[in-house]
Design brief:
Pfam family, one: DUF3311
Number of domains: 1
Keywords: Membrane, Transmembrane, Transmembrane helix
Number of strands: 0
Largest sheet: none
Mean pLDDT: 84
Strand content: under 5%
Number of helices: 2
Protein name: Membrane protein
InterPro entries: DUF3311 (IPR021741)
Shape: elongated
Distance between the termini: 28 Å
Organism: Streptomyces caatingaensis
């Protein structure tokens, strides 16, 4: 028979916060890879074609989503380490 996993060899568990963090990291990639959604010139914003300002809009959005993912992963790590000490 197989032995139960020891404390050192536990499987990583995918929790809701980690899944949300993964979604936050994948969302900008999906938005940029779906070129048909932004491959046009209208509507313009202060004279800049949609193609350009849409991409530049994703810079701060990606930054915010990466920060959210970082916080979620750090909280999950602290919770896992805190629960392992008990």
């Amino acid at each position: 028979m197989s032995e139960p996993p020891s404390e050192d060899r536990r499987r990583p568990v995918v929790t809701l916060p980690l899944a949300v963090a993964g979604l936050c990291l994948a969302l900008p990639f999906g938005a940029m890879l779906w070129v048909d959604s932004y491959a046009r010139t209208t509507p313009e914003f202060i004279g800049i074609p949609f193609f350009y300002w849409y991409q530049m809009l994703w810079v701060p959005i990606s930054t915010a989503l990466t920060a959210v993912a970082y916080v979620l992963v750090r909280r999950a790590e602290r919770a896992r380490k805190g629960g392992a000490r008990r």
